[in-house]
Amino acid sequence: MFGRRSKFFVVLLASIATIAVWTGSAQGRTGAAAPSASSSCNSPGVTGDTVKVGLLVEASGPQAATFADVEKGVKARLAKLEADGGLPGGRKVEYVFADDAADDSKNLTEAKRLVEEDGVFAVLEVSSHSKGSASYLHAQGVPVVGWAIDPVWGQYDNMFGYRNSYAPDPAKNQTTQTPEVMKKLGAKKIAVLGFDNSASTLAVNNAAAAIKKDGLKVANKVIVPAGSTDFTAVAQKLKDSGADGIDTLMDFTQNSALMQAVIQAGIRNNFKAVVFPFGYDPRVPGAFPSLDGGVVGIDFKPYELNLPAHQEFKKYYAQVNGADAVTSQISMVAWLSTEALIKGLQVAGTCPTRANYIKNLRNVKNYDASGLIQPVSFKDTFGKPVLCLYYVQQEKGAWVPAFGGQLVCGKQI
């Protein structure tokens, strides 16, 4: 049963990714809009009526399904910008699309194309391979705004995570965040699982160190090949170790296979806490029931709280993408990344320069993306790991806010 469900879900999301990659709008990709008017503003990518940015996305490759809804979220936020009257001076944002295909060298190649051939003002980036172009974009003084999921976001001052930064030294990204969640759920002996690549192995070692330093025990550190689907032997290891908590750094298809093996081994009730790194999507509970009971940490307030800002997001998301478009975790990541990009353009003035953009956005304090995130200061959070997250839990085919919808915070180790 798992194999059929997993295959169907991956094919479904891959189809969505294809649609997202090749569907444009008059406000979106270059080529769809009429030529812009000239302007006395001499900044790259800035004309009298538009600011051109690059949208650099991991749209193909092994994690394409994870990033499938990025362009949908971007288009929705730009639709709201247009409805609000545009940027200072009435300008709209026009974007040029680029796919790094989950490859560091391609990430650099595409960034160079955006800057040197397309002449973009800034780069909106949602990719796990941002390190490929980080040094180049910094040297060029190009603002980069997006999803901070690599230490380079805390190394280069031209890079802005929409809500957080990162410690440039990977070892300093150890926090007590997940151990605090484990404690709240009653787990004391934790198994940590990840893939056999350098990034995932580092994350496993960091997680294990944090668990120990926060007073809990590490039951196992398990490294498996990326793409693994048979976790029978792993489930036996977890059983033998006496673990009562699982911290997995794998993606949701592998996590589903893991939990299916745990269920088949008859040990699901042994685990008081199971923490997943990703998968907050309304399609996941129905497609992967083995994940039931697991929690996912997110850096924005859960959809289920249905705050005014959520309602506004859903309004424009449906308006641009269709009433049946799914509001996934990554679509909100894309909306929030675009929101932060727009904030930078708003504070950069009517004739923005790249230098003023970086300087003025870095000085923004108490930024909360209309109430969707914990208020942050872009200066104070730079070079530091995320310490507070919201959590959602999968229960009986649906997501519900965990811990009353309140932040759970840890400390940097």
Global morphology: globular
Within CATH, the superfamily of the largest domain carries the name Response regulator
| N/C terminus separation | 42 Å
Q: How confident overall, as mean pLDDT?
A: 88
Instruction: Predict the CATH topology of the largest domain.
Output: Rossmann fold
Protein described:
With 413 residues, this protein is of the alpha/beta class. It has 2 domains: 2-169 and 306-385, Response regulator (Rossmann fold, 3-Layer(aba) Sandwich), CATH 3.40.50.2300; 172-303 and 389-409, Rossmann fold, CATH 3.40.50.2300. Helix content is 37%, strand content 16%. Strands 6, 7, 8, 9, 10, 11, 12 and 13 form an 8-stranded mixed beta sheet that branches. β1 (50-57), α2 (70-83) and β2 form a beta-alpha-beta unit. The longest helix is centred in the first third of the chain and has 21 residues, at 2-22. The model is unreliable at 1-27 and 30-39 (pLDDT under 50).
Keywords:
Rossmann fold, 2 domains, five-stranded parallel sheet, disordered N terminus, single chain, eight-stranded mixed sheet, alpha/beta, 12 helices
What's the arrangement of secondary structure elements?
Elements: H1 2-22, E1 50-57, H2 70-83, E2 92-99, H3 104-117, E3 122-126, H4 131-139, E4 144-146, E5 159-161, H5 177-185, E6 189-195, H6 198-213, E7 217-224, H7 232-241, E8 245-248, H8 252-264, E9 273-276, H9 284-287, E10 295-298, H10 308-321, H11 329-347, H12 354-362, E11 388-395, E12 398-401, E13 408-409
Parallel strand pairs: 1-2, 1-3, 3-4, 4-5, 6-7, 6-8, 8-9, 9-10
Antiparallel strand pairs: 10-11, 11-12, 11-13
